[in-house]
Design a protein that fits this description.
- With 175 residues, this protein is mainly beta.
- It is 7% helix and 44% strand.
- The strands form 2 sheets. It has a 6-stranded antiparallel barrel. A 6-stranded mixed β-sheet has the order 10-9-8-7-12-11.
- The longest helix has 4 residues, at 3-6.
- The protein is elongated, with a radius of gyration of 18 Å.
- It starts with a helix and ends in a 9-residue tail after the last strand.
- 25% of the residues are buried.
Length: 175
């Protein structure tokens, strides 16, 4: 595996073929996919090491997500095997973020604590929902919990300390 493939970041998931010409319905993971300058090469596959280069030539926004067009796909039969495949770009090609912004992959593995320093658990997955994103937190000695990534929860993300601080009072119903 090349160094570049070790540093790949998934920016979307192909859900299904759209139409007969090989277009794909894609669920984006954040705004990165929709902001790419086209045409451009991306990697597509079930996981980074097995992903193959494909040329992304077009993106159309729809109510259900994005429709992506690849130069290599010209028929529905070619798009069908790509169901649930991920679209990757090298991490070094991601856009620069402002101080208070983050990529989903950066949150995985962070410890979630209250403002008093009480540990709730560890982020195992970030989910992209239409209303808001949420973090799935594996709790110590308890069932996992989903915490919405919204201001009401009082999120403070510290990349250096690898922690996400939440307002315990806002989570009373969840915990």
């Amino acid at each position: 595996m090349t160094n570049e493939q070790q540093e790949l970041v998934a920016i979307g998931c192909i859900r299904k073929p759209v139409g007969l010409q090989g277009a794909c319905g894609v669920t984006p993971f954040g705004p990165t996919l929709g902001s790419l300058k086209l045409p451009r090469q991306v990697l597509v596959g079930a996981d980074g090491p097995q992903a193959v280069p494909m040329r992304l030539t077009g993106i159309r926004e729809t109510v259900k997500g994005l429709t992506c067009f690849f130069a290599e796909l010209t028929a529905i039969e070619q798009a069908e095997p790509l169901r649930d495949a991920l679209i990757y770009v090298p991490q070094k090609e991601l856009p620069k973020l402002h101080k208070d912004e983050f990529f989903h992959f950066e949150l995985q593995g962070m410890r979630v604590i209250t403002e008093q320093g009480v540990e709730i658990g560890t982020v195992v997955e970030v989910h992209n929902y239409p209303s808001s994103d949420g973090i799935e937190v594996s709790r110590l000695g308890a069932a996992s919990v989903m915490i919405p990534l919204v201001a009401d929860v009082g999120l403070k993300i510290d990349r250096g300390a690898r922690t996400i601080q939440v307002n315990a009072a806002a989570l009373e119903e969840i915990l």
